[in-house]
Amino acid sequence: MTEGGRAGDLAAEGVPEAEFHPGIAQRMPRKGVAGGALIRNEDGLILFLEPTYKPTLDIPGGMAEQDESPLEACRREVREEIGLELEIGPLLVVDWVPAIGVWFDAVNFIFDGGVLDREQIQQLRVDPVEARGSEFLTLEQASTRLRPSMARRLAAAQEAVSRGATQYAEFGRL
């Protein structure tokens, strides 16, 4: 970003181009965007949340709000869901998810949430509106409580950590 931040960057872009066909921008498809954090403890176990709004486990993170980047959404959701202000690290996985039921297709970004030490784990406060609880598990231990695509996405994130390279996936498949 420029010195002026996002506002400066937008100003530097200049006047937006006019629509060739008026109204086309409003008819263009839209995708959901989400940002999540792969957070581990010192033993390498993954932090999972038990959301109040769905039957499967999830990692801290969530959908981006209007004009919010996936990284900003990840930071906000981590802060809201577990009460920690974490330094969110590099991007691990970009995963496209097809439309399912009433949900539009989406792009999920998994960032490295780092390794929590014992003190940080003691400070962890799960928002009871967001989740019934949290636990550190191996991916294998959690797998029966995850959607298959999430298990694949998290396996790709673990591989990205070990390889030191971002992974691209489609529905969790590399």
UniProtKB/TrEMBL annotation:
<protein>
    <submittedName>
        <fullName>ADP-ribose pyrophosphatase YjhB (NUDIX family)</fullName>
    </submittedName>
</protein>
<dbReference type="InterPro" id="IPR015797">
    <property type="entry name" value="NUDIX_hydrolase-like_dom_sf"/>
</dbReference>
<feature type="domain" description="Nudix hydrolase">
    <location>
        <begin position="29"/>
        <end position="160"/>
    </location>
</feature>
<dbReference type="InterPro" id="IPR000086">
    <property type="entry name" value="NUDIX_hydrolase_dom"/>
</dbReference>
<dbReference type="InterPro" id="IPR020084">
    <property type="entry name" value="NUDIX_hydrolase_CS"/>
</dbReference>
<dbReference type="Pfam" id="PF00293">
    <property type="entry name" value="NUDIX"/>
</dbReference>
<keyword id="KW-0378">Hydrolase</keyword>
<keyword id="KW-0460">Magnesium</keyword>
